[in-house]
Write a structure and sequence with these properties.
The chain is mainly beta. It contains one helix and six strands, in the order E-E-E-E-H-E-E. It has one domain: Nucleic acid-binding proteins (OB fold (Dihydrolipoamide Acetyltransferase, E2P), Beta Barrel).
Length: about 130
């Protein structure tokens, strides 16, 4: 099974493009922090791991429209790799997370919605709800 779940903050605004066949593609970096206590000093410290996130189709458009640098999000997806040749001619392997689900975790008052779902109820005030 290839599944990864992350909670973190965007390192920069998402960048959206389209493939030659017209599929939406959005990329962004995600900083995931891990808090731990140093065994020797007992001091608390934080370690940040950066992930490269790739979203496709409708999820790509949602990420591009609603996320921005600093947004706190939950990303679920799978790890993928691709080979490339760096500027020195050395072949390397890069790892990305291909997102399959995204939930915005910022408070509603900060301009963020709840989750990526249908969005129907998120667009209505309490008086407008049909139930």
């Amino acid at each position: 099974m290839n599944k990864i779940m992350l909670i973190g903050n965007l390192g920069k605004d998402p960048e959206m493009s389209y493939t030659a066949s017209g599929k939406a593609l959005t990329k962004f970096s995600l900083a995931v922090n891990r808090r731990m206590r140093d065994r020797e000093s007992g001091e608390r410290r934080e370690e940040t791991t950066w992930f490269s996130i790739v979203a496709w189709d409708q999820l790509a458009e949602t990420c591009n429209n609603y996320l921005h640098k600093g947004s706190k999000v939950y990303i679920e997806g799978r790890m993928t790799s691709h080979k490339y040749t760096d500027k020195d001619g050395v072949e390397r392997i890069a790892w990305d997370v291909t997102a399959t689900d995204m939930e915005m975790l910022d408070p509603k008052g900060s301009g963020q919605g709840g989750s990526q779902g249908s969005g129907y109820a998120d667009d209505l005030s309490g008086d407008d709800l049909p139930f």
